[in-house]
TrEMBL record:
Family annotation (Gene3D superfamilies): 1.10.1660.10
Organism (species): [Muricauda] lutisoli
Domain Helix-turn-helix: 43-91
Taxonomic superkingdom: Bacteria
A matching Pfam family: HTH_17
Signal peptide: none
Protein name: Helix-turn-helix domain-containing protein
């Protein structure tokens, strides 16, 4: 994955966090609208969640270590519940 550097000028950390969370919530909501609830799996792999949220797997790992995100290990693979991620994101903006 190619890394890029983005410089943010004139914004404090709280505003940056709020903007990031808002974008993530919009993406999740857009994805949820395009899926039939009956066909949506409960668990997603680290790679799937990273693509859905447009964050790196390293970011997900950091969120796990900080206690922001809860992972489940099933058959040697890491999984996340989309509902829990959505709840965390909703709490972040309220």
């Amino acid at each position: 994955m190619e890394q890029t550097t983005t410089h943010v000028i004139g914004i404090n950390p709280e505003e940056l966090t709020e903007r990031i969370v808002e974008r993530l919530v919009k993406r999740i909501n857009r994805l949820a609208k395009n899926k039939n609830p009956e066909s949506t799996p409960n668990y997603f792999t680290r790679e799937e969640i990273s693509k859905k949220l447009n964050v790196s797997c390293v970011t997900l790992y950091r969120w796990e270590k900080r206690g922001i995100l809860k992972r489940r290990k099933i058959g040697g693979k890491i999984y996340y519940k989309l509902e829990e991620i959505e709840a965390i994101l909703e709490q972040s903006i309220s």
